[in-house]
Amino acid sequence: MKTLKVGDKAPDFKVNDEDGNSISSKGYKGKKWVVFFYPKANTPGCTAEACNLRDNYKELQKEGYELLGVSADSEKRQKNFREKYNFPFPLLADENKEVINAFGVWGPKKFMGREFDGIHRKTFIIDENGIITRVIDKVKTKDHAAQILD
Fold it and tell me: Boundaries of each Thioredoxin domain copy (predicted)?
C-alpha cells in the first residue's frame, strides 16, 4: 500500500456522489480541500467523525476548506447517511475503490483480533494547486475538525 504523503500531487479522479452526480478532482482546482476517508457509512466511528465535521463546517469554510467524504459504500447507502445526519458536504460512493486506491488508504487492518483488508481512516488536506499539505493518520473521530484547523 503506497499512501500519498505531504508534497505529493493529489490524484485525478472522477466518481459519483450520493446523488449520482459526477464529482471530479478537477472541480477543486484553485480551492483548498479536505478529503476524508472512512471505513463505512452509519457506523459509530464514521458517524462521530462526519457529524463533528458537519458541526464545525462553517468554521472549516471560513478557513477556505471544501470537504469531501469517501468510502466504498453504494450511492444509496451514502445518500441515506447524508440525509440521516444532514451533512452539508458530498460523500463519494467509491464502490470500485478508484479514489481509495489512488490515495493508498486500502490495506490490511486489525480489528477485534482479526485481520482483514479495508479502508484506513485518513484525511488529506490539499492546497489550491492540488498538492497535499497535510495527512492526518490518527483521526480523532469526535474532534476531527480541530485536527484539520490546527
Answer: 4-150
CA distance 50 to 73: 15
Q: Is 46 a catalytic residue?
A: yes
pLDDT in tens, 22-47: 999 999 999 999 999 999 999 999 99
CB-based contact 119:37 (threshold 8 Å): yes
Strands (E), 85-136: 91-93, 106-111, 114-119, 122-126, 132-136
Across the strands, what pairs with 20? none
Rg of the chain over CA atoms, in angstroms? 14
pTM: 0.96
Annotated catalytic residue: which of 23, 46, 93, 125? Answer: 46
Q: In 25-64, at which residue ranges do the beta strands (DSSP E only) sit?
A: 32-37
